[in-house]
Amino acid sequence: RETFDTLDAWKPVTFPRISGLEFSRGDETEAYHMLDEGRAIIVNGIFASQRKVNVGDTLTLDTPGGPVDYVIAGVGLDYLNAKLATGYISQKNMEQDFNVVNDMLIMANQADGSDRPVTEAALSQLIEKYPAFTFFRSEVFRKSQIDMINQAMILFYGILAALVIPG
Description:
Blueprint (H helix, E strand, L loop, with lengths): L5 E5 L4 H4 L3 E4 L2 H10 L2 E4 L1 H7 L6 E6 L2 E12 L8 E5 H8 L17 H12 L10 H27 L3
Parallel strand pairs: 1-6, 3-5
Antiparallel strand pairs: 2-5, 3-6, 4-5
């Protein structure tokens, strides 16, 4: 039976329009369709290489109701789980098989022609009712992540230089 560091769920029809995965194996359109239609799972590259699994293989997941088989529909990567062995299933299957219905991350695209400040104000007001959530604009989040990676690389190069110079 398989275990994951993270098992994420989303609506397979809308997720690729808002964010999506970078697929290394399997057909993206078919993979999302399989998640929407049955018990299918997309795994990330870390999980696939650790378990030596591929598209079309069957994984047995332990659920509160007992073991359930999922077919691997694709191997894909998302930035947030780049270092964790991760599986992705539909919200419908997460609810049916794991009895989980809460959201940890909500993503949205702004409609063409809508007023950005008005949209952001409405979203900020909405999340005030949910203190566990934080509103991030994608550009700000991306920049913070890039800045963090750049700082880590500067530190890495500094350590490398400190090791190379005496040699």
